[in-house]
Design a protein that fits this description.
The structure is a homodimer. The first copy, chain A, has helices at 3-12, 31-35, 43-48, 100-118, 123-133, 160-164, 187-203, 225-243, 257-262, 267-272, 294-300, 334-347, 370-376, 380-383; strands at residues 23-27, 58-64, 137-143, 208-212, 248-254, 278-282, 306-311, 351-355, 388-391, 410-412, 418-423, 431-440, 448-451, 454-455, 457-462, 473-477, 484-490, 495-506. In chain A, strand 13 and strand 14 (454-455) form a beta hairpin. Chain A is α/β, with parallel strands linked by helices. The termini of chain A are far apart. In chain A, the strands form three sheets. In chain A, strands 1-2-3-4-5-6-7-8 form an eight-stranded parallel beta barrel, surrounded by five helices. In chain A, strands 9, 10, 12, 15, 16 and 18 form a six-stranded antiparallel beta sheet that branches. A four-stranded antiparallel beta sheet of chain A has the order 11-17-13-14, with no helix packed on it. Chain A has two domains: 3-388, Glycosidases (TIM Barrel, Alpha-Beta Barrel), CATH 3.20.20; 410-506, Jelly Rolls (Sandwich). Chain A is built from 14 helices and 18 strands. The interface between A and B is large, with 47 and 46 residues.
Amino acid sequence: MDRRVFLTSLGALGASPAPRGGIVLNEDSNHYFSSRAGQRLSASEVSAFVDQYAGTQVRDLFFNVNAMRAGFPSKTRTSFVDGYEPKGPDSQEMFASVSAAEAKGARAWVHQAWQLRQDGIDVYALWLERARKHKIGAWVSVRMNDLHNVDDERHYLHSAFWRTNPELRRVPYRQEQRDRALDYLHPQVREHNWKFIEEVAARYAFDGMELDWMRFGFHFAPGREAEGAQLLTEMHRRLRKLLGPKRRVAVRVPSRPETAQRLGMDAVAWAREGLVDIVTPTNFWRTVDNDMPIGLWRRLLPSAVTLCAGLELGLNAFPGSVAAGGRPFQTNSIETVRGSAAAYLVQGADRIYLFNYMDSQTAMDDNSTYPDLLREAGNLASLRGKARRHVVTYQDTWAPGEKAAYKLPIEAEAGRWFAVRQPVGGGAASARVAIRVGVRGADASGWEVRCNGARASFERVETELKPGPNTPIYRYAVPLTSEEAVIDIRPASAGRVEWMEVLVEPT
Amino acid sequence: MDRRVFLTSLGALGASPAPRGGIVLNEDSNHYFSSRAGQRLSASEVSAFVDQYAGTQVRDLFFNVNAMRAGFPSKTRTSFVDGYEPKGPDSQEMFASVSAAEAKGARAWVHQAWQLRQDGIDVYALWLERARKHKIGAWVSVRMNDLHNVDDERHYLHSAFWRTNPELRRVPYRQEQRDRALDYLHPQVREHNWKFIEEVAARYAFDGMELDWMRFGFHFAPGREAEGAQLLTEMHRRLRKLLGPKRRVAVRVPSRPETAQRLGMDAVAWAREGLVDIVTPTNFWRTVDNDMPIGLWRRLLPSAVTLCAGLELGLNAFPGSVAAGGRPFQTNSIETVRGSAAAYLVQGADRIYLFNYMDSQTAMDDNSTYPDLLREAGNLASLRGKARRHVVTYQDTWAPGEKAAYKLPIEAEAGRWFAVRQPVGGGAASARVAIRVGVRGADASGWEVRCNGARASFERVETELKPGPNTPIYRYAVPLTSEEAVIDIRPASAGRVEWMEVLVEPT
């Protein structure tokens, strides 16, 4: 085999890196049913859903086809509409465990799913086809251990397999949410999910399949994850064989390599064995993680593997944090996504993966900028010259027995220095940079604030920043050109720091 | 070039991995002077110091030749004995800043160093020669930023360069210990240290040189470490050129790859560029780190690079922890070193690096087992079948602005589960395993303790365990065969958990 042929065949096997940049977007399995509830939809209206992503930076659309139940009439597991009586009341058996208000909403989207099925419309099949027409990568995404509403054993989202096999759960001696996940150490659990994978692979025409191990990220009895990792690697070997050389494989895994491995999701091993083409480290849900070790991932993964930085929709500073206006949860805005994306692209991410960034409902608090987001977030070139915010958040996924470390809140004491580090993507020489610090219970205007050693100067107090904290925000100007900011503060008085960010604005 | 020749030349370049196993031992620059103070030593007595390591698992002896001052008469920096008046009193100018008691001890060891110099004895040169005779690797180790006693500007350990250049320190706006380290962003600092390296390389005949970046581990202004990393990498390029193809290079760096990089010590980059042959991740000082990500390091480093797990002498559970008997500090014992070593060898460490494990004074609290330690700790085969203790400790080195995470203490609440994960080296199927939990302020005999899901049974209360906590210890029996233990506990009452360990005993 001469060198040229050898390189060509490597390319055919997916071993040559794809060009950098672009967005992967995940559309979940029932957002469409829910957001379009009450409408009677035609096949062409369903297909047209994809058109909003054409001509943007979205290179791949990942259509999620299941939670615990399947989004299509499955032969291997319960489907969303199984047990639904279209002529029954909202209070019918399927919805008996939830409140009247939830039952009304649930019934509406389940009815939509039912109606589409009655009309012979498979939304995922139509979308995959339309994506290919637009030359957008057409993927299916399979959630491997969804746990929505497991605190309610009778909830309408649950599969019969999960309901009837409580002995297959990962922590039988306790009943917290993640304890109720199915334990892949059990061959029945692996087989149940494998059969579904086979079914999806046979049912749909796609460019690639994602196994979404981050829904919900816990797959093994605590402490037995090393054994478990072997089993998941074996499952990925089967998947590669099943899909063959032309269809690609993606995975979502926890944001830090060590935690991923300690949860049994050894994405580095999968990648080095050639079993996966795209790896997406990500937080689980409540907030984007703005301090994932993307550079470390890049070093660990073969260069042929595409590394996506996984961005969740939420933007929340610490567990239990309260957002501007007293809300328990807030989402990113286009400025904060720009911050996350810029930092990760600088650190070596190939692409930005948007999860829960949908076109309505599960969407940014201000979704009017959604079209812009899809045209900016995937490339440094399109991010350049635009205001961006680098917000300190937290990591929400830890292996059992790992010590969770949250940067905020900080109980500041008078005269006692504290420091927080935040990647900021560098290249801020021609920009105005400000540090924002949200403080409860103190006037921080006279605090000594330094950024990478340079003394910052107090500018003003801001309020009602969105997204932002439910505290006054003290804003300080500072020069900054490094890739990371170490914000070093000596408080003049005691207070509780609930928010920190670096704002980079074009001059 | 045929395959055989190719492999041979690779070997000559140090690219073929050395066989696994063995111990690296670091002897610090003044321990010998101090521990032999008051004796008049001959050259052969000095050389004989090395003999205790012959016939053990010690494959390499790293002779440290400096702190901030040099241990030999240096042309490029202050030496230990500079300014010493052999006929002067203990209270002479050199020791004027310390207490009378400290001055007496200091003067005794400085006098020993002076006397040896008077007698024409260079201890490091003799040791290097003797080590080679024993076919033990003969190394010099250079501390790159030592900070002993920097809270006292006039202390007798300080170099003139440090004393007279306060503007070259890394955090000029603050005066904590690590703030006073020299900042390698300044070319004068790099040149000062580079000239010393050249001097050491010219003065001594050695197999390799270690740059000990973990004395004391902080080399750059906060937030500017990415720039700094480039400079240290450049220094390592110079070092490789200086030493040529036959002399090897080792480094000590922080225990986690990301923290090492964020402190400007990018050992992975050095290794991938072929600039270093041995990499030793390690804690700084107060305790051995029993949860270093050695498997992650192994994946990041080229296989030709020897990975040492760096073990510090101390064994302490958390910052401020109090040891058995009320002591503020305690050391490892042979059983706890066995635990650390076994776990790290299983995780892929090539060798065990002992720091501060010297033959007296800076030594294990019970150093009667020192000869056994040197014959056991470097290989799984010699560790097998012996009792070992896997103690939960903490990581003492964090980049500025990183969130430090300590597993202990835990303020346990009645009914509220908590979990701690500890690597245990696996292979405990034919052993008796016990969990030990040190609890203050509660009777934990009735607590629900689980290990990797299995219910542990309370055995008894132990007291005065050494090393151990200053609390009663509750001991529970449990089966265990995994490489990691997740100890999951539901307290029956509130208490403060100050110690956790997994004991593995042969049956």
